[in-house]
Design the sequence.
């Protein structure tokens, strides 16, 4: 198959290796070393996409990360789908399959194009806000329509077969960008002995040297490049990372590098030695010094029709010719504001194609390259610019005219030049994106007509990235910057001999962004500023007329620099146009903030191995295996896996949760149940001042708690709101063990440390987490004493081992602490043994417990049983706005303790002490079958016109087998005074439930059962 | 992600090991009952949010579990110094109002721990 635009020689491609690929279903061929973009251009593919908003045909504009149009969907297989791939950055491989992301039914015949043509004036900037706002109910319809026409690619519908790694790295000097400046910087740093990482987003290291016309030490740039890369790769202190994008520059020289290891080989990672290779690595680098050698992006000129396929950046033309051996057309017109762009015309002519004219906006350009062009017979038209490109699916002509830049007007007759390609250059912008990620605002430099990066501590910019453009200076600047960075890291500067490069005399560039047209901007054919987001010069002018004066507002109103583009190509032009319209200078208008990521990063790389079972650590108790073997369903509580309920097979059918919970509840109330409570937080507290500390941190009193006794405690923040609760037991006069909620264990330990370390360091007390050291088995129910008696040497007599006592002894032959505390309201023993003994004890309990009907129960039954007793769960029945008094737990508040404990003072603040606070109550639904929804809002009068005042909400709600009724806990304004009143709960489906406010204690209100 | 020098471990560690705990040097009134509601409210809820030098309380949560203070620049996010509980900062908004760079060397010297 022919590649009409492929040169017979030249470039860095391997013509002996032909690769087949498809684009929009059509088969093409390219060569090893091509990008998808260079291969498409070689095959003469003009239209690669339809534009986002106006659906105009679009072609390839650039050769690198700044490409706005050739954003394609990659993947032949479903699992291999990758959206948002820039064809200019995708290496060609055999079998590659790509499609345009926009265009319906296809890019050649696009129905949506009619909208762009006919309806252009109906899609002004801010058209989302203006056109689609009303009626709001139609938004979903609009959005579907916009999505369909906008494309934007799609994610795969099948699981990703690839694997991704995260690597954590440290280095002395991280050099980002391996062009001439980055290479000499890396060389200088490496020779001094510093540990260096050099990364570059392209397939090959070299940057601008890969298509340079200049000679280094009388040899081609490739020769010098090969020598330097050979030295760097031979050094043990250097890590070279090609195909690696520095996508985010975070705090304190923390940089994330996205290395693509197989995307140049196939759409999913190929196997190596039978194993799937890692598709990409995310390097998390902490660098001593960072050197930004990110080079420049060329700015296109903004003229009418500048989006028609065949309009390219001048530098991209050179790159395609010199690096890929592809000339993207036959007849070239170059429009420029500077000398450097003349290379495109010289390269074009050397490739054997016609240069129709160079149109230079300057009156008297006189640099060396200008002379060369003239001496080769190329027509150079000065003081002029291309004001409009003609053509629809490909450029057919360039309209050129004299322009008066001061008056922003066309100043002479228009001449039409027939051509198929227009290359433009409005100068060069340092790539400041990474520096902007740190929050540093760039500064405008009139000398280079561009923004320079502002730099935080520990970072420097070199070469093009800081506005140094001439190759000899760039090489020297890189070496100097690399050397300084190494010295800053404590190394001694080493010498780097720089290659001899003849300086090219270049004239001063002129400031040209938008080219004037014969018609005013608002009536001229569209002049595009941001091709990816279809933002025009007229759109920006309109935005400023409508009062959007801040560049950040202009950006949001017009969508300039949005999305994956991040303003690489158009931002400076857009700011310049806004500045012109507002009568300000560019630095006065300022720049928008570039944000990570520099180019899109696939989610796989971000996730790494943290998916599936490695997503989050899972914590298991020592009894976990038993629960699994006995069919438990599990519930996640923080990172813990807790048995939720144990469905049994009854008459060949597995119980539902409702059935299982009812059975488990009955077992506890009537016989004996057992709960694995090991996940409860346990903090060992020791020291002479332990008791004093408890008195300050808990709301209630601790000074009289005797050895062998336990006490329930409430903990508040200093704002008086309940933050945790649990039972603390006195092991010895200076030794306590505190239990916390399962989820609160780590935070409460930190809370205790906070007060001890910052406010009361004079207290002699220490805290140790012992959650994992002890397993806790709760046996509860009327038969629990009989069961435990068979296994322990502890005297369980009700008068010697009272409720809220604990005893030390042996259970099933191993040392144990047994606590007589209850979270069910039944006679309960919490058996604590060292975790390694837990399974033995648990099994022994079951051996002896069968005759008593010992039944394992899970968290769901635990919740029902505790709620029947009105026992709160902090974080469910409280939410950080609930005081002990709101809970009706004044019995747990030591108002007369001498020390003003944490939370006490706040209880008398006006808001905390006011009437009508939400207070904890019980709710009894009028219809016993109703189980109210947790979170349901409570109103006093359902007939009240909307908005109905809401007086509270349901915090816990269950069906109680004991009561044979639904029941709930709730917080209701002034609820403690409303016992017996009826409230209403309107539901989303229109039903209104009726409930009576009752005491939150539904079972055994006198608390007799736990004392038996 | 910050890199934080723990003044107790005397090492630079990743931010993941630490928890921020808000503004530093907020002392709990010694006699809370003597505070007016407004004074107590100020202590509970009101914090400075300066553009520039800020003193913060942090804890080396999964390291030594010690609380300590950080002096941080809220614009550049640069950590100017870290110091132990009970100590006072050597770098304050007043002391850096002139030349921040001049102070950097002092802060760096203080933080010469294990190098990355």
Sequence:
């Amino acid at each position: 198959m022919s590649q009409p635009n492929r040169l017979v020689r030249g470039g860095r491609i391997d013509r002996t290796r032909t690769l087949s690929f498809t684009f929009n279903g059509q088969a093409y061929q390219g060569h090893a070393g091509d990008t998808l973009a260079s291969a498409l251009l070689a095959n003469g593919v003009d239209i690669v996409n339809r534009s986002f908003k106006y659906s105009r045909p679009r072609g390839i504009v650039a050769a690198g990360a700044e490409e706005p149009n050739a954003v394609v969907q990659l993947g032949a297989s479903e699992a291999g789908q990758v959206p948002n791939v820039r064809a200019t950055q995708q290496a060609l491989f055999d079998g590659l399959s790509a499609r345009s992301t926009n265009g319906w039914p296809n890019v050649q015949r696009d129905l949506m194009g009619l909208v762009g043509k006919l309806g252009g004036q109906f899609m002004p900037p801010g058209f989302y806000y203006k056109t689609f706002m009303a009626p709001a109910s139609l938004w979903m319809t609009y959005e579907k329509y916009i999505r369909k026409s906008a494309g934007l690619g799609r994610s795969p519908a099948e699981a990703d077969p690839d694997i991704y790694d995260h690597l954590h790295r440290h280095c002395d000097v991280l050099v980002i960008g391996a062009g001439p400046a980055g290479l000499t910087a890396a060389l200088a740093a490496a020779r001094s002995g510093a540990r260096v990482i050099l990364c570059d987003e392209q397939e090959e290291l070299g940057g601008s040297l890969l298509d340079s016309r200049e000679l280094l030490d009388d040899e081609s740039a490739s020769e010098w490049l090969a020598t330097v890369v050979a030295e760097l790769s031979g050094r043990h202190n250097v890590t070279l990372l090609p195909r690696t994008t520095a996508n985010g520059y975070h705090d304190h020289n923390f940089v994330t590098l996205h290395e693509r290891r197989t995307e140049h080989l196939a759409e999913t990672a190929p196997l190596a030695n039978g194993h799937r290779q890692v598709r990409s690595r995310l390097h998390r680098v902490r660098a001593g010094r960072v050197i930004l050698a990110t080079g420049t992006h060329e700015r296109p000129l903004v003229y009418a029709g500048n989006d028609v396929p065949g309009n390219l950046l001048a530098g991209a033309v050179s790159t395609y010719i010199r690096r890929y051996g592809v000339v993207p057309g036959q007849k070239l017109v170059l429009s420029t504001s500077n000398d450097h762009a003349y290379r495109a015309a010289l390269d074009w002519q050397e490739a054997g194609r016609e240069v129709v004219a160079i149109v230079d906006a300057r009156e008297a350009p006189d640099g060396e390259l200008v002379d060369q062009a003239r001496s080769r017979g190329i027509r150079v038209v000065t003081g002029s610019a291309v004001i409009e490109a003609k053509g629809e699916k490909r450029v057919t002509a360039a309209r050129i005219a004299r322009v008066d830049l001061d008056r922003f007007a066309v100043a002479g007759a228009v001449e039409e030049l027939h051509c198929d390609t227009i290359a433009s250059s409005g100068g060069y912008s340092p790539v400041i994106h990474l520096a902007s990620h740190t929050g540093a605002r760039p500064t405008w430099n009139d000398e280079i007509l561009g923004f320079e990066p502002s730099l935080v501590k520990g970072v420097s910019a070199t070469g093009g990235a800081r506005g140094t453009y001439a190759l000899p200076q760039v090489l020297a600047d890189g070496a100097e910057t690399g050397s300084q960075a190494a010295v800053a890291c404590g190394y001694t500067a080493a010498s780097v001999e720089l290659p001899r490069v003849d300086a090219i005399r270049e004239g001063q560039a002129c400031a040209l962004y938008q080219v004037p047209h014969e018609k005013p901007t608002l009536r001229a054919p569209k002049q595009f500023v941001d091709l990816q987001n279809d933002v025009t010069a007229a759109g920006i002018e309109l935005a400023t007329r409508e009062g959007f004066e801040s560049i950040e507002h202009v950006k949001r109103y017009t969508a300039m620099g949005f999305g994956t583009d991040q303003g690489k190509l158009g931002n400076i032009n857009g700011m310049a146009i806004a500045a012109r319209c507002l009568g300000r200078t560019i630095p006065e208008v300022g720049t928008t903030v570039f944000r990570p990521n520099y180019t899109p990063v696939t989610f796989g790389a971000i996730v790494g191995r943290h998916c599936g079972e490695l997503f989050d650590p899972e914590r298991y108790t020592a009894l976990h295996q038993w629960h699994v073997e006995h069919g438990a369903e599990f519930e996640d509580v923080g990172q813990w896996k807790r048995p939720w309920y144990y469905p049994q097979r009854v008459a060949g059918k597995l119980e539902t949760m409702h059935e299982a919970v009812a059975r488990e509840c009955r077992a506890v109330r009537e016989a004996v149940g057992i709960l694995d409570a090991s996940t409860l937080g346990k903090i060992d507290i020791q020291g002479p001042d332990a008791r004093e500390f408890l008195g300050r941190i808990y709301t209630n009193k601790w000074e009289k708690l005797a050895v062998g006794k336990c006490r329930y405690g409430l903990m508040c923040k200093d704002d008086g709101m309940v933050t945790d609760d649990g039972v603390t037991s006195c092991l010895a006069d200076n030794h306590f063990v505190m239990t916390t909620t399962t989820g609160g264990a780590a935070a409460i330990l930190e809370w205790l440390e906070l007060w001890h370390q910052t406010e009361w360091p004079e207290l002699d007390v220490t805290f140790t987490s012992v959650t994992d050291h002890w397993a806790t088995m709760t046996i509860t129910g009327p038969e629990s004493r009989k069961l435990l008696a068979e296994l322990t040497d502890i005297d369980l007599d009700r008068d010697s081992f009272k409720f809220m006592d604990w005893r030390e002894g042996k259970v099933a032959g191993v040392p144990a602490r047994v606590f007589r505390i209850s979270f069910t309201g039944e006679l309960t023993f919490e058996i604590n043994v060292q975790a390694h003994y837990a399974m033995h004890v648990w099994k022994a309990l079951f051996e002896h417990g069968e005759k008593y009907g010992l039944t394992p129960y899970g968290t769901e039954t635990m919740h029902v049983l505790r709620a029947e007793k009105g026992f709160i769960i902090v974080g469910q029945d409280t939410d950080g706005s609930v005081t002990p008094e709101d809970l009706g737990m004044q019995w747990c508040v030591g108002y007369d303790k001498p020390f003003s404990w944490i939370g006490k003072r706040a209880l008398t603040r006006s808001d905390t002490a006011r009437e009508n606070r939400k207070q904890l109550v019980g709710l009894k639904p009028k219809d016993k079958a109703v189980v109210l929804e947790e979170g349901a809002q409570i109103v006093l009068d359902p007939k009240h016109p909307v908005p109905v005042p809401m007086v509270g909400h349901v915090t816990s709600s269950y069906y109680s087998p004991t009561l044979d009724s639904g029941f709930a806990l709730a917080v209701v304004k002034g609820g403690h005074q409303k016992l017996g009143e009826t409230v209403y709960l309107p539901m989303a489906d229109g039903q209104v439930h009726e409930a009576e406010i009752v005491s939150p204690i539904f079972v055994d209100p006198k608390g007799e059962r736990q004392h038996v | 992600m910050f890199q934080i020098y723990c003044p107790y471990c005397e090492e630079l560690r990743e931010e993941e090991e630490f928890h921020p705990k808000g503004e530093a040097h907020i002392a709990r009134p010694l006699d809370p009952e003597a505070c007016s509601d407004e004074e107590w409210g100020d202590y509970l809820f009101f914090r400075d949010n300066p553009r520039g030098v800020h003193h913060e309380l942090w804890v080396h949560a999964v390291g030594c579990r010690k609380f300590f203070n950080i002096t941080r620049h809220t614009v550049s996010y640069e950590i100017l110094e870290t110091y132990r509980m009970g100590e006072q900062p050597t770098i304050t908004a007043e002391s850096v109002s002139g030349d921040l760079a001049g102070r950097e060397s002092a802060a760096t010297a203080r933080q010469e721990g294990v190098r990355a």
About this structure: Chain A has a mean pLDDT of 93. Chain A has six domains: 14-150, 163-293+431-488, 299-427+509-518, 520-603, 680-770+872-904, 914-1012. The first strand of chain A starts at residue 14 and ends at 23.
